[in-house]
Amino acid sequence: MTNDSTGAQTSIDQCLSYFEHLSEPMAELLNILADQYDYPQLAEEILKELSNKTFNSNDLKGPKSISTFVARLSELNPRLVIKQIMLLAKLLDSESYTLRCAIIEVCGNLIAMLSKQEDEERTESHKGQMDAFFDVLEERFMDINPYCRARAIQVYVKLCDLETKYPKRRQTAAELATRSLEDKSSNVRRGAIKLLGKLISTHPFSVLHGGQLSQAEWSARLAACEAELDALKPPPGTPGLGEKIEQTVDEDLLDEVTEMSPAKKSSQTPMTDEEKRVAVEKANEQAANTELMNKLSLTRRYYVEALKFINVLHEASLLVMQLLGSKNKAEVIEAMDFFVISDAYKIETARTGIRRMLRLIWTKGDSDEGKRVQPHLIECYKGLFFDAPDHLSANDAANYVARNMISLTFGASSAELTSLEELLSTMMKSEMINEAVIQKLWQVYGVQRKEISKTQRRGAIIVLSMLALADPEIIVKELETCLRIGLGSLGKADLGLARFTCIALTRINAAKQMKGTGTMTNNRLANDHAVLQRLAAITQVKSTSKEWYGLVEQAIGAIYALSTHPDILCSEILRHKTRSVFAASVSPSSSPKLVQKETEEDDMDVDMMEVDDGDQTDKPEPEKKSMPDTSQTGMNTSISLCQLLFIVGHVAIKQIVHLELCEQDFKRRKAQKDKMLAAKIDATPATKKTTKKSGANDEVKKKEEEQDEMDLIAGTNEDDFTEAIQHVRERELLFGKHSLLSNFGPLVREICSNNIAYPNRDLQSQAALCLAKLMCVSSEYCEQNLGLLITILEKSHDATARSNLVVALGDMAVCFNHLIDENTDYLYRRLADPSLPVKRTCLMTLTFLILAGQVKVKGQLGQMAKCVEDEDEQIREMSRMFFGELAGKDNAIYNHFVDMFSLLSNDESLEEDQFKKVIKFLTAFIDKVCCIFVTVCRTILICRLVGKTY
Asked: Residue 804 in contact with residue 769, Cβ under 8 Å?
């Protein structure tokens, strides 16, 4: 038998060494020998031999085969492997990471085996073995090889499903996983996210109070428990305490047996029955208090451990939020799943992460993982907000979904609202939102009788406008509701509501792709339409609120989006506003077109569910009282002038956009007409008699000649039209004799030039903004006032004005590049602006201009390089993203590295450590062929530092 076992051992050893595919079959063979034939000696001998093997560094097949064998055998028969674990532990010191991964998996299998043992099966060394195996796993979290670190995390994920929870070890695992979120390996980071999610879903703190992990709730429970404990503890110094008595008794008396004298015994009077009863009750009460205190102490410990675990999860959530922007899309998907799980357990930081996920709707990718991000995001949001519980009725489910959709708008930034708009419109196109939910949203927006907060009503119209991007009929069907609520008395009292209503109205004319054609059709309205009249009237609302500007911006935008002749209607708005600012009194009939239907707006009625029809037309008295007086005497003249200048500037911008759209529409119609004409010529009947063949050929030639002449004439007409549009923009809008805007150019210049005569800060800010918008219209006007604009940018004390002018200069650089290209230095100077919002705006503007090729990059890139080590985290991230994108443009960083290095090395405000970090960051983008150049720069750096030292 000995010779047979030796031969078998040799054969198995050879199979493991040379045939990788036989690893698992050999493990199954040895398991059968041990279990069914009670012969474990062969497996033990093989394990001993394998533990003493050494492998060549170039040998990859042997370690991999043995790793698979050992891991599989520990899974099939862990009791057999645990006997040889001391020998197998030597493999942890092996240079082969596959062998270390195998031992990590063996430890996991042995822990699973030991945890399933019954109490009577456990030996004295059971706890020591468990601790040793857990220690090995925790050590491997810091293994030098990322595959070993990832394997340790995978093993811990499996151990989370064990019935025995091991709270202390889970806490350690959570802390290690949080640290692993910053690992360099994406596999380790992805595994760490998965482990944290598994720790949450299998946490051991569901025995009391359910399984939620809200930090606020657990903190309140801990405070209540500590208050109960303090109430049960007797105040310090209270007589009769056991601890006090023990401290006063002489310990020497306790060591000796003492007897009381007979005289002393006789002096003690026996206790009465009443005294005995009182003593027994007191002893029982003390015992109950002691038991209750012990119970509360254990409960307090339970709460402390739960809070410790929750705090680690909060810390980890912040790191997972950063991983939502990872380039590894599988990692992004795991991060999304983590926040979904966290939200299910009411972890407070989950909502922030879920809102941060919205930006992923714009993710595009060529790989399969990249294409999965957007659908996975939609599925996550669908499960979180759009899938109602099964036990709800259809009506309650619609209420549930509508309430969740409105809540998504609360506290959202403009960027988040833009991402939410894309998400909801995508879901609407996929028919994931039913009609009942839309009706509930209209009820929230249109109800007047019930108590509806401003945020709810605003949220309802915001969501409806987002859904209307996919289906404009949503707004078209409820136009009367929009006019009655958003542009009626409620809208005048809540300018924010009116603003979002104007945005919703622009969705009426959302471009629709016609079936069978490649053109886009837009249905515009006449200027006397009720919608346009209400939009014009809402711009004349008297208000000192800052929300007025946002309302008028969207109202004018809606007019230009919906009207066939928006310039005529906006001219009426400008005339009316100008009269109200400069005239001593305004006649009620001075602008009948804007107010003629003012009294009719509340006569409109819309059928609504759960609302009485008779009460819908009633105006809410409190909101009517909040309306400001319509007379001009109650308004500040500076505020009125600010509002007028804002309308002037915005109308100018929208007018040039309107002209560009007219030009595009002309070209589109011309191309469509040419296409139809060509198709008509091609459709000439070919079934003519052969006798008329020559005549037909002559006719075709004649038509072709006519077509060539038509093309020539049409081309000339197109060129003439383009030139006419350009002439209107350059000469007519701001310099024409009959142009309304030409009257405001000198006024704006006068206000901006004389800040002493016009000292109002808001007026100067609005005048500068209006000046910048007018400069975007005409290159001649821009050239005349560019010096004034730059002076305001340099000397203005208003951060908002400087920020607006930075954006305006960016727009001018796109429109009139030849004028701004020589003055880009003034734009780069704003990167050192004392105001943080101005710096951010400037960095974003320059990023767009440079990456889009609108500005020639010179030596000023060093100013942007300084932002890499800025104090503000957002600026640092934006600048790093900019250089990352710039690095992909024909070695751009290498080409400008000398200029950047020169500027940074001569900047005295830049500290030495910051200088080194910036240079290190920049050199990371330079190719290996540039190493000599980098070495030279480093030599210059050393000389510079030495020069400073001496």
From this structure: yes
